[in-house]
Amino acid sequence: MKKILTLIEQELAPAFEQAGYDAGYAKVTVSNRPDLCEFQCNGAMAAAKAYKKAPIMIAGDVIAKLEGSRMFESAQAANPGFINLKLSAGFLADYLNEMREDENLSVEKAEHPKTIVLDYGGANVAKPLHVGHLRPAIIGESIKRIGRFMGHKIIGDVHLGDWGLQMGLIIVELKERQPDLPYFKEDFRGEYPKEAPFTISDLEEIYPTASKKSKEDAQYREAALQATYQLQQGRPGYVALWRHIMDVSLPDLKANYDRLHVTFDLWKGESDAKPYIADMVQNMRDAGIAREDQGALVVDVREEKDTKEIPPCIILKSDGAALYATTDLATIVERMKLYQPDEIFYITDKRQEMHFTQVFRCARKAGLVKEDTKLTFLGFGTMNGKDGKPFKTRDGGVMRLQQLIGDIEEEMYHKIMDNHEIDPGQARETAKIVGLSALKYGDLSNQAPKDYVFDIDRFTSFEGNTGPYILYTIVRIKSILNKYREAGKRADGRMMPAKSESEKALMLELARFNAMMENAFEEAAPHKVCSYIYDLANAFNRFYHETKILTEEDAARQAAWICLLSLTRSVLECCIDMLGFEAPERM
Fold this sequence. Notes:
Layout: H1 4-18, E1 28-30, E2 39-41, H2 43-51, H3 55-65, E3 72-78, E4 82-87, H4 89-101, E5 115-119, H5 134-149, E6 153-157, H6 165-177, H7 200-216, H8 218-232, H9 236-259, H10 274-287, E7 290-293, E8 296-299, E9 313-316, H11 324-339, E10 343-349, H12 353-365, E11 374-380, E12 383-384, H13 401-419, H14 424-444, E13 452-453, H15 456-459, H16 467-486, H17 501-511, H18 513-522, H19 526-546, H20 555-579
Parallel strand pairs: 5-6, 5-10, 10-11, 12-13
Antiparallel strand pairs: 1-2, 2-4, 3-4, 7-8, 8-9
């Protein structure tokens, strides 16, 4: 279906032409003065200079040509030359009836679908997910869902950190603790054990211990760096240990992501880039774009237009070891070979912007991507505590994501038990659903690049711009629809022209859905979905409080309202699915 704004412009364009003006001036926007009109066109003011005529006169000429239009309830010229428009209630009802019958709820799928590799998640194996992993996971998941809804092929890749220094640290620490294990014997020729010599709990203790030691002991750190290099060079015992680490870590990571309703199509990591590194580096040497600098291999990526210093992209360290840039570039090679994407989209901490500037420029300079392949970086801001500093545990440590989810579920459980008479078991299950909405909506309602304050009290409130408020609205609609059906009635009718201002306001909000979704995808902005459903929920609740739906005696009018509620529920549920959570049956 075409967007409401498009249809209005198509109605205005002939009116401009018939009045003697260029149809290109018939641009329409949603009014920023809803007390005066619903939509407005400023084309008369733009045309005034070209036609040497007062804008109010041009607006009047256009208005005259709109007389008799079924689309508008009113079309008025206002000084200094605005064209103020209100849709007719009949036209709006017809639009929503068509929307209700559309399986895509009025959203036009992409005419030319893109293949987009979406790199989000970015967890490190052998380490538990912490609060810093929340934002890339849920922002990426939402962008993936929005893109797929718009008809694009989105390939989600977790891109694990599985080939860097943390592997060397674990190897060195394990060697100190269990030096007799066969993995550390260079002359070992047998089969390595099938069972890992550690559990996920062991790894969660081993890594921080090793990390702490490396900061205090230069010799220990050097040993870890050497172990990392030997792993990357394929030392058999270290590769066997790496496989154990992966086998133990992945199920735990998947379980935690599942709890967030976050899924990935690919569980690839930095290690998957290894087969592509040697040829990529050699090609850079042969092409003359890579040069030696103090033993390291670098590519200059500075451009004349730069207003700040852009350091060279380091491809290999002086000892030949690969870096993040190396594996990121080789991963681009792999993605182009396997998926031929139109775009590769990265979601990471905004502090990595310089890194991706270097990587993207290097990729283009080396010809790793086609000229029309888009490389996009979305940097997210920090989740802070009420003190304005990065969110921590009470004792100042980094909070595990599992604990954060548990805390918000517990808070929701107590609020549900305090406000309702409900079975505790059912309250626990509802708390999981509503708690996830509080967590995700609390994050996604903010623009991704901005820092925000994590406020558990505000996020779990049933009032205001929160996930629980949105879910409470959906549950309220479900309850009305259920009572209507339980009375033996069926909503076989159609929506009628709005009877009240609040009903029309709700209908206008619903009509914005397709334009909002298109904009949310184009700008990779889940916060726009949040903003929209908050407005939609508010519009519904105003209508609900002013309208006696279930006691209405006019059966046709009541059925029309039920159709309106059904569409509202469908749009709200579609939107929360885009955000990665769902609504319970009861709250």
